[in-house]
Amino acid sequence: MALGITSPSPRFHRAWWIVAITFLTLISAAAFRSTTGVMLMPLEMEFGWTRSLTSGAVSLNLLMYGLTAPFAATLIERFSLRRVVTLALLLVSLGTFLTTKMTAGWQLYVLWGLFVGFGTGCLALVFGAAVANRWFVKNRGLVTGIFSAGYATGSMIFLPTLTWTINHHGWRSASIVVSAFAALLSIVVGAFMRDRPSDVGLLPYGATVEPEMGPKAPATARGAIEVLFTSLRHPAFWVLGFTFFVCGWSTNGLIGTHFIPAAHDHGMPASTAASLLAVVGIFDLIGTIASGWLTDRVNSMWLLVFYYGLRGLALLSVPVLLGPAVKPPLLFFIVFYGLDWIATVPPTVQLCREYFGLARSGVVYGWVFASHMIGAAIAASFAGWIRESQGSYTIAWYTASVLCLVAAGSMFFLKKIPTLVATEA
After folding, report:
1. CA distance 61 to 109
2. The pLDDT of residue 151
């Protein structure tokens, strides 16, 4: 046992306080990023902007969010969790507040796309994976599921409140509320977050000795890029990257960005559609935590076959289900999609650990997560273009369905692929 490490089993391990802070941060970061979906129509109405312009800003936001993730892992390694997360929250606060002063479309791209995109990218699930890797040995999959649920729940559950604020007080008031909360949360993180158990004289939860982390994670941008090129030579990375690309396409990019406008096209009030997305968030909390629990017990590849396959079949029904009123079949879709929304994250993170080693898995997952948000960015623009050119989202729903079914089938390629750890041995 390392010098200065205290008893590995305190009555209430500090790791769970770190979980609580991380969970709150992930919920909030997702809520900050999701403001883009409910503000599309108010901005278009006030400034006369087209759906292509606003969707393009959302796409840049999603792209920056994803591409920041692997470099956020190296920033965390080099400068500490507490510093990176605190500064990222302050950047989100600044970017969100400045949107209230914008007058031109390019400013939306800078503030939504660059400021909020980069800030929330540093607060993405890579941050949660780093906490789970450092603070837990036992229940690591469950904790990853809790963090994943917080991320997805945050992006949905606050939508009714934001929509109500926009409808009654304008979109600028909603932006100011988000900005103030991000600033307040930065104070909480700065005061209570700690990087590693050893910083407070503890072992990770469930450990009796310091765990072996494997090859050291890179602490520079160059190191992160080197990990990418090493991973690109391994077939498992391509499979995981593709499936997560599809996950981003079918969640953040399509449903997260365009469900409210698509429902509005069918006569449903925006407030009702936002409430349905909140229901998605509530059931995702259940589904993703359950997925984390299953990841500790069931082969992750089979879980992903199940998740992507059912998601693909569910998306086929959307054009038929949408209408001015919420009928039972639509509500069933919403509940199911909630349970499946980010259930893919815990098994994907686990496969990154298995194929690339524990220490490097954070950066590898960062690159896999980047593919998730690239898929989301392309889907956000693609669906906006489809709506503008065809007058409906039908082709967008069917395209996402086919991609999900292909993703489910691609999991079978992993079965005979050796791990990178094994090939390096």
Report:
1. 8
2. 67
Dist. CA 151–CA 27, nearest whole Å: 5
What is the average pLDDT score of the chain? 82
Quickly state the pLDDT bin for 396 (edges 50, 70, 90): very high
Cα distance between residue 35 and residue 68, in whole Å: 19
CA gyration radius, the chain = 21
8 A C-beta contact, residue 176 and residue 33:
no
Q: State the Cα–Cα distance between residues 389 and 385, nearest whole angstrom.
A: 6
Share of the chain above pLDDT 90, in %: 15
- CA torsion through residues 206, 210, 212, 217, sign: positive
The answer to whether the beta carbons of residues 247 and 288 sit under 8 Å apart is no
Considering 57-66, 304-313, 335-344, the range whose residues carry the highest mean pLDDT is 304-313
Helices (H), 200-234: 221-232
DSSP-assigned letters across all residues of 59-120? HHHHHHHHHHHHHHHHHHHHH-HHHHHHHHHHHHHHHHHHGGG--SHHHHIIIIIIIIHHHH
What does CATH list as the number for 15-205+212-424?
1.20.1250.20
Dist CA 327 CA 1 (whole Å): 59
Residues 6 or more apart whose Cβ sits within 8 Å of residue 87 = 122, 186
CA atoms within 13 A on the CB side of 318: 28
Whole-angstrom distance, CA of residue 58 vs CA of residue 55: 5
Residue 259 token pair: 């469900």
Residue 205 DSSP symbol: B
Query: CA dist 258 to 155, 277, 283, 361, 371, Å?
Result: 13, 11, 20, 32, 20
Distances in Å between the alpha carbon of 282 and those of 91, 159, 249, 291? 28, 12, 21, 15
Q: What is the pLDDT of residue 347?
A: 92
3 falls in which pLDDT band (50, 70, 90)?
Answer: very low
Give residue 8's pLDDT: 47
What is the longest distance spanned by two Cα atoms in the chain? Answer: 66
